[in-house]
Amino acid sequence: MSTEPLKDTAAANAHGAAAPVRAPAVVPAHFQSFLAFDFGTKRTGVATGSRMMGLTTPQPTIKAEGADARMLQVAARIKEWQPDALVIGVPYHPDGAAHENTARALKFGRQLRGRFGLQVFEVDERYSTTEAIASGARDADAASACIILEQFLRSLP
């Protein structure tokens, strides 16, 4: 499992879907606080984290269906936490192939960039929910967002 954030997803495969380009993301040193999301169509896990401390904290999961309802709650979290940047988990099949939720997560990332003007870093989130459930998390979505953010923070110099 790769823990490198995805820097660029512009390359397209034969089916026109974005293919992951695994390259270390350039994260400015002054970016210290992050808000992470484990995107889902019904629930979106949320976590906060600090580069300096290397710690993540789960936040209440966003329970909203539909982009408008979700974005209202995302906006409230961004206003509350004032992060330097955002981190999203991007799911892939075990073999690294993209699937329907891959495209949805990437679209969510583009919407975040456009709406909030913050840099969005993408992390391969394969197995994060499985790991969260296995650890006995009461809120698997928030725990998964923590795992995604921990992977991202570990990848930073």
What does this protein structure show overall?
With 157 residues, the protein is of the alpha/beta class. The chain has one domain (31-155): Nucleotidyltransferase, domain 5 (2-Layer Sandwich). Helix content is 35%, strand content 23%. The chain is built from 4 helices and 6 strands. The chain has a 6-stranded mixed sheet, sandwiched between helices. Strand 5 (85-90), helix 2 and strand 6 form a beta-alpha-beta unit. Helix 3 packs across helix 4 (140-155). The longest helix is centred in the C-terminal third of the chain and has 17 residues, at 100-116. The radius of gyration is 14 Å and the shape is globular.
Detail the poorly predicted runs.
1-23
Can you summarize the main beta sheet? Answer: 6 strands, mixed
Task: Write down how many β-strands occur, each being a DSSP E stretch of 2 or more residues.
Answer: 6
SS-based class: alpha/beta
* CATH fold-type name: Nucleotidyltransferase, domain 5
Strand order of the largest sheet: 1-6-5-2-3-4
How far is the first residue's CA from the last residue's CA?
19 Å
What tags apply to this protein structure?
Nucleotidyltransferase, domain 5; disordered N terminus; 23% strand; alpha/beta; 4 helices
Briefly, what is this?
With 157 residues, the protein is of the alpha/beta class.
Topology:
Elements: E1 5-6, E2 33-38, E3 43-50, E4 55-63, H1 67-81, E5 85-90, H2 100-116, E6 120-124, H3 128-134, H4 140-155
Parallel strand pairs: 2-5, 5-6
Antiparallel strand pairs: 1-6, 2-3, 3-4
Protein name: Putative pre-16S rRNA nuclease
Domain YqgF/RNase H-like: 32-132
Pfam family, one: RuvX
